[in-house]
Amino acid sequence: MSDLSAIVKAYDIRGVVGEQLNADLVRDFGAAFALLIKPESPAVVIGHDMRESSPGLAKAFADGVTSQGLDVVLIGLASTDELYFASGSLNLAGAQFTASHNPAKYNGIKMCRAGAAPVGQDSGLAEIRDTVEQGVPAFEGQPGIVTERDVLADYAAYLRKLVDLSGIRPLKVVVDAGNGMGGHTVPTVFEGLPIDVVPMYFELDGSFPNHEANPLDPKNLVDLQAKVREVGADAGLAFDGDADRCFVVDENGDPVSPSAITALVATRELAKEPGATIIHNLITSHAVPEIVTEHGGKPVRTRVGHSFIKGEMARTGAIFGGEHSAHYYFRDFWRADTGMLAAMHVLAALGEQDRPLSELTSEYKRYEASGEINSTVDDQAARQQAVKDAFASRSGVTTDEVDGLTVQLPDGSWFNLRPSNTEPLLRLNVEAPTQEAVRALTDEVLAIVRG
Prior knowledge:
451 residues, Alpha-D-Glucose-1,6-Bisphosphate, Chain A, domain 3, six-stranded antiparallel sheet
């Protein structure tokens, strides 16, 4: 078998269908996954997104699982966090077929152990790859059986139990599903609540005919922003393709940073559980740990990436974790990420008082930020070292390399420069007290990176 390192990523399997991923290979991945989790899970729950290739690949994976004697529970069309709900509530290992916001020609597999525990390179994914590369051993016993189960209503009921929206003031909310799985989950989750949903692109279409389902890119928020202003909505929500991430815009159509959402949700969770631990990755605004501390919580800083966040949540018993990329993790959701639950917290906070969202979220914004800026470089390590050398000798500057290079300046400005795991890129994030300081520091670092 050929080398699979190109498609077995840090947290999932992802590749071009027909070229890198096909039914035979996916069947082997299913069999290898079954071998990995057989000692701890009697069955695997499998869901898939709206991509044209997803149902067939999900069936091939199921064939692989049953070929090793394990049963399969098919939940059909599902968001990724709906799959995590199924894995958690049924206490079964799980697999979701999605390539998130990637273009239509891609697909992939996100896997988890029973209770939605992550499967990444260090927690089983490398082992699965090795098994497939070396050839999956045949199983001589009885094959497993396949059953079907619809968990959407149970998923919605569980979320509504965690965040009660039934008593809020009426809100008008525009939701851009980007032709992704938000179009499947939002109607059921919000049904009967005092929320007037104005739907955009709810038709499930894995060719993404309107815009790519990646709300991290500002161009994909333009339609939502215009619609919010046009209909006079109280807020706007944008989900990515598999609906595990959610972006928020306020009543003016202005994006609310994921750091502000992290701080807002953290304060709500701390009100329920004073003194609890909150996880934030090292690229979230410094406002997050400040606000967590002011509300009596314990902020814990971690590397970027869901396996690190979930690991730290397990280690510290944290109740909530947030990332700059709009991934939000909840202890009460098996430490898994769910954009839907974060969105519900925002709507609850908005609907429990009378101020507009822009005013409400301004409390959680203290600094200016550059957003993530990518630079293509020939030698990531050399460019990062050049930046470190340029700043390390300055008075009052501190550096760390927990994840890439983080440089803290004495005026409160800071930046993080980290290499991409999958592309020849360096990613820069800058934060400072003023927009002018952000621009100056960004220009200075990019001159070294791109020089």
